[in-house]
Model the fold of this input.
Amino acid sequence: MSPRGVLVLLPVLALTACARSDDAGSTAAPATSPTASASATPTPEQATGPTPDPTSPPTPESTGSPARPPMSATELPTLRPPAVKPSPPTDLRPAGLVSGHITRGGRGPCYGLVAEDGTEYALHGPNAGELRQGSFVTLRLTPTLARIACGPGIPMSIVSD
Done:
């Protein structure tokens, strides 16, 4: 056989070897015999099989993949609510206590404070004494009753114990 004949038969043999049979136990027979002429080429329908109906949903046979079961047949575990209610946090501060850095200090009565959460307060405390700028303090604050302007921030009064 000539090299040209071999080149023509190789694609034909490859297609017929890859073809699936309808019977699980049978093997596919080649579409052409080794003595076939070099001019025999498969038609497009023979090479690719019948064309599927575009209106019908794809089946495992039409997509070329076998039908697969789902990845897991069991249900995923879910967490149940706890038997005992969780306890409240232990690091809560009493109401009214605010910690932060003094931004406007001195002998008073007006001060500035930036709390740990970033909130800026304008504090009034005639009995608070000297609070140095930059120092970290924890103060008991209440809303101010008097209309005293102590600078930018939320106006609050320092409660002295």
